[in-house]
Amino acid sequence: MRTPEMTRDDHASSEAINKVRFVRSYAKINLTLDVLGKRPDGYHELATIMQTIDLYDTLCFSILDEDRVSMVCNRPELSNEHNLVVRAAQAIRQKLGLIRGLAIELNKRIPVAAGLGGGSSNAAATLLALQHWWQLPLSMHDLWEIASSLGSDIPFFLTGGLALCEGRGEQITPLAAHWPAPMRWLVLLKPAISVSTATVFRQLTASDYSNGSWSRAAETALQTRSALHPDDLYNSLERGVLEQYPEVAQAHTDMLQAGASFVRLSGSGPTLFSTFATLPAATRVQQHLQARGYEVYLTRPIAANNSEISFF
Known about the structure:
By secondary structure, the chain is of the alpha+beta class. The protein has helices at residues 4-10, 14-18, 84-96, 118-133, 140-150, 154-157, 197-202, 213-223, 238-244, 246-258, 279-291, and strands at residues 21-38, 44-64, 69-73, 101-107, 162-167, 171-174, 178-179, 185-190, 264-265, 272-276, 295-299, 310-311.
């Protein structure tokens, strides 16, 4: 016997069913990352300023005439049911009792396990795309609940842009899109290793914890359009990563020698980033590091919903 949910699903508009939908899924950097301490649930309490950047994966969604979700990726090792993209689609189907099948193609450009949130961004993009494409009766709070159940970074990507993220990272306070003009270009370097986020957090010491003041100070500076100094961009995880992973420490040194005025770790790494006021300066550093064999990206911050950033 068919349920009401199935009936509504079957009677979805032919226009929606026949469409193929492409969406972009943007990466992020952690401008700051304060680890406040360990929580009773085993996670760590965080305060972090996150910013989406113009480095993105591309997702293609199409209707599948079977009651399942399939996914293929240009990185074959990611083409499986454990991928957050599939889990996000299944979570929506299960919540609403949908039987409509879905085929997903993922063109991966964001480095994997890099501290740039690629998998989390893919999941959020999937939630938003299906909600809009299939015109589902889901509020943003509904999407937030699904996102939070799948991963701590995913709720941020439901809005993107610039935000203060607290708790496990799932408590989001969107910030006005104010950004220092001397930081308009970003150079990212992904060392040729993977870093386990869980391992990095396990190896934190009490001296790495902070009270959240770095992120609060950065928030105030950005929102009041005050000077934001590189020394203010603190990451509680950076000391441990640089000490435990020589490849990251060497890349950090090489970025400075290539002309970066400062270098910071994004998230739990291993990706490092620096900022530049002009494209020629950023390009020189990018090309120097590429000549040394590094995986390097030249990008920029982007605001939520394709709005404009106010540079100061």
